[in-house]
Specification:
Strand order of the largest sheet: 3-2-1-4-5-6
Helix content: 40-55%
Shape: elongated
CATH class of the largest domain: Alpha Beta
Number of strands: 11
Structural class: alpha/beta
Order of helices and strands: EHEHEHHEHEHEHHEHEHEHHEEHHHHHHH
Largest sheet: 6 strands, parallel
CATH architecture of the largest domain: 3-Layer(aba) Sandwich
Number of domains: 3
Length: 450
């Protein structure tokens, strides 16, 4: 399930996370995860989108269209039926990955008919009995009302499901982060930015040239990452020449917790139930910083969050490297961005619904509404001359031959009509054959026998 043979599998992870991408955005994110050493699998209702994921081997891609269809067209019901109709194939395809993973991270872009059915995929995967977290993107402000309605419905359903954690990435922030970037580079750079911060958090201690002072191990990461509800993470680098202070660390943490970087903004971090805080700093900074200060930061965080569980790590870096703090905070309520998106979806969705309910307009055709040019043309024979009729039946233009057959209805002489119809029955245009057969059937059994 690695992306390609020339990719090196990275075992330096705190947890072995299997990544499952749903829809176009989910598939692209799955590739970026695979490029960083994660086992990844992609599901899509679209043939073309799935085919474009050629960095994943064929056995790590599954088409889940309904009855051979390609895509879901932003139709949530079609997307849902597509997944449900492929339930057994999905379970069979993901069984090996589930057995080889500590947990699943399901990734998708919310708004389309496929990716917005991530809640349906979660239900389908229940028999695999593996913990699941989800990472999804929210639509930007410029996207359609239908996209926003689909997204907000999906977020609401995901929040009610028994998931380990839900991570919301804001597409609007990604747009703001890469102004002027070309279309050919935008999505790959955006996806890499989304995944880089997560991978840094999941990278084991020995992935860096560091010395552990207070370890943050795999089980610490599992407990924080598996907290129920909404979760964000991030890191901040800075160069210091003076000791760390409580005010400085708290300021950096609060900025990240508000949804800095790529996450939906406006979180109330005081509602969090679990926090991870990892400090990476050169020896000179650690020697100049009081241990009591770090403990005071822990006490302050507990007070701010009214008793959240706090997991910490301290690591010594080589001299010359910048100081860094990494944090993950979970089990929070909906951020302001989601509330605003709900408001936009409600207003714009009502407008779209009114348009859909409107009766279709019609044109007043007046006297031309009853005009039937084919009937007019067929009322009179093109000619009564046998040679001319035969010539017309041999014309290269099939429409001329069809008009000729339609005109034969007006010929009353069956002796003259029969050979013309027999010739028409041999035509390679099915329309002509059908019309000739109708006329022949009306001639009577005696003439047909002839």
């Amino acid at each position: 399930m690695k992306p390609s043979d020339d990719k090196i599998k990275d075992f330096r992870k705190r947890l072995k996370i299997g990544v499952v991408g749903l829809g176009q955005c989910g598939g692209n994110l799955a590739i970026e995860f695979a490029n960083k050493g994660y086992d990844a699998f992609a599901l899509n209702t679209s043939f073309s989108d799935l085919k474009s994921l050629d960095e994943l081997p064929k056995e790590s891609r599954l088409h889940v269209g309904l009855n051979g269809r390609s895509g879901a067209g932003r139709d949530l019901n079609l997307g849902k039926q597509s997944l449900l109709s492929n339930r057994d194939r999905i379970l069979s395809s993901l069984n090996a990955l589930a057995k080889d993973s500590d947990l699943f991270l399901l990734v998708a872009g919310l708004g389309g008919g496929t990716g917005s059915n991530l809640p349906t995929l979660v239900e389908i995967m229940r028999p695999l009995n593996i913990p699941c977290s989800v990472l999804v993107t929210l639509p930007s402000e410029s996207e359609s009302s239908l996209t926003k309605v689909n997204a907000i419905q999906a977020v609401n359903t995901l929040f009610k499901q028994n998931l380990n954690s839900v991570i919301l990435i804001d597409n609007q922030k990604i747009l703001d982060l890469f102004p002027g970037v070309s279309l050919s580079e935008y999505y790959s750079r955006a996806n890499d930015a989304v995944i880089k911060a997560f991978d840094e958090f999941n990278s084991a201690d020995h992935a860096y040239k560091i010395r552990s002072i207070r370890g943050f191990d795999s089980e610490d990461f599992r407990k924080v990452f598996s907290s129920r509800g909404l979760l964000i993470y991030g890191s901040s680098n800075f160069t210091l020449t003076e000791p760390l202070t409580e005010d400085f660390l708290l300021e950096q943490l609060k900025e990240l917790w508000k949804g800095g970087g790529l996450f939906a903004s406006g979180y109330d971090y005081t509602t969090a139930a679990v926090i991870a805080l990892i400090l990476y700093a050169p020896k000179s900074i650690l020697e100049a910083t009081s241990a009591e200060m770090f403990e005071q930061v822990n006490r302050t965080l507990k007070n701010l969050t009214k008793g959240a569980a706090i997991y910490t790590g301290i690591y010594e870096l080589e001299e010359g490297r910048p100081t860094r703090i990494s944090t993950m905070i979970g089990k929070m309520n909906f951020p302001d961005r989601v509330v605003n998106l709900l408001s936009q979806a409600s207003i714009e969705g009502q407008g779209l619904a009114e348009k859909v309910r409107k009766s279709r307009p019609s044109l007043d055709l007046g006297e031309i509404e009853q005009m039937d040019f084919f009937t007019i043309l067929s009322q009179e024979p093109l000619t009564n001359d046998m040679d001319s009729l035969i010539e017309s039946l041999e014309d290269d233009d099939p429409d001329v031959r069809l008009r000729t057959v339609l005109s034969l209805n007006t010929i009353g002489d069956n002796d003259r009509l029969h050979p013309l119809l027999m010739k028409a029955l041999k035509d390679n245009d099915n329309r002509i054959v059908v019309e000739a057969a109708k006329i022949l059937g009306n001639m009577g059994n005696s003439q047909v026998a002839e």
